Amino acid sequence: MPHTTTMATMLELTDVDTYYGASHILQGLSLKVGAGEAVALLGRNGAGKTTTMRSVLGLTPPKRGSILMDGTEIARAKTHRIARQGVAFVASGRRVFGGLTVAQNLELAARTLGKRAAADGRTLEDVLTVFPKLRELADRRAGFLSGGEQQMLKLARALLGNPRLLLLDEPTEGLSPAVVSDLGRWLDRLREQGLSILLTEQNALFALAHVDRGYVMLKGRITHEASAEELRSSEEVRAALGVG
Ligand SMILES: Nc1ncnc2c1ncn2[C@@H]1O[C@H](COP(=O)(O)OP(=O)(O)OP(=O)(O)O)[C@@H](O)[C@H]1O
Ligand SMILES: [Mg+2]
């Protein structure tokens, strides 16, 4: 979707300061995700990408600043209330209930998250249409899934909450190149469905191939903001991200 000034804003962080104890991590961070827009948040290890997501989710609430979700202030709201506003989070790494089957993981998510999904919400059927492979894997224990299959399961679970904004933290981490390209196709499909997406990635070239716009951050501050195309072709940005 093209970035225009008339696009409605889904998420807006303004001058956010977030701390872990005495460590001042996010230092006046501001960024926006438009409705139906996919945005990348790029930066090297320790830049503050995950902390930005934790701030939005209320897991590490900011000390100062504003976070608006679809016009509602959520900066100091509880995580469950933020989820109810339509924010879903897919954490990096292997975060599934390994002892449960794929079907049980999905049923659990449908029960706990799906309550707010209302009549027009995404159902398990809709989600299985995006990820048909999960049907074949229904009886498999989640702990035995490959990295890509687990990523699919995590995405499916998040979608069952019927989010309007999806926060994806380093989704390509630990995935083989073949699965990374599958992930790109899933992301494109979710964008087509109009979901707003904020994606953090170390793999900048992957992220920039699947978003409209991006930010580069360094030490808790935004250093660059531009369209995906501009960021891809900027020598300065490539150097800042360590992309060859
Ligand atoms: N629980 C914590 N307590 C104290 N400091 C933390 C904590 N979690 C993260 N940090 C520090 O905050 C800074 C930002 O970390 P964050 O995880 O947000 O970075 P990141 O950009 O997501 O990095 P990566 O690409 O490695 O995931 C780092 O310096 C990190 O060491
Ligand atoms: Mg991180």
From TrEMBL:
Q: State which residue ranges cross the membrane.
A: none
A Gene Ontology molecular function term for this protein is: ATP hydrolysis activity
Keyword annotations from UniProtKB, A to Z = Amino-acid transport, ATP-binding, Nucleotide-binding, Transport
Offer one example of a GO biological process linked to this entry: L-amino acid transport
Q: Which domain of life is it from?
A: Bacteria
According to the entry, every stretch annotated as the ABC transporter domain falls at: 11-244
**Family named by the database record:** Belongs to the ABC transporter superfamily.
Question: Which protein is depicted?
Answer: ABC transporter ATP-binding protein
Whose protein is this, by species?
Answer: Actinospica acidithermotolerans
